[in-house]
# Entry
Amino acid sequence: MKVLAAYGAYEDLEGPRTEGTVIAEFPSMEAAKAWYDSPSYRDARQHRLGGTVYRGTLVAGV
# Structure
């Protein structure tokens, strides 16, 4: 995974207000899903999801 942007300045133009954004690059959708379901991230995710509402989106690159 390569982090391309993390909690930098942003402006919400449409939709609900966000508190921050992270954009990460993975070699493939399968690699992103494997990271998301990995034991180490699963442990962190359970704490993160307990604190607020999050959205996660996978987008295929060009």
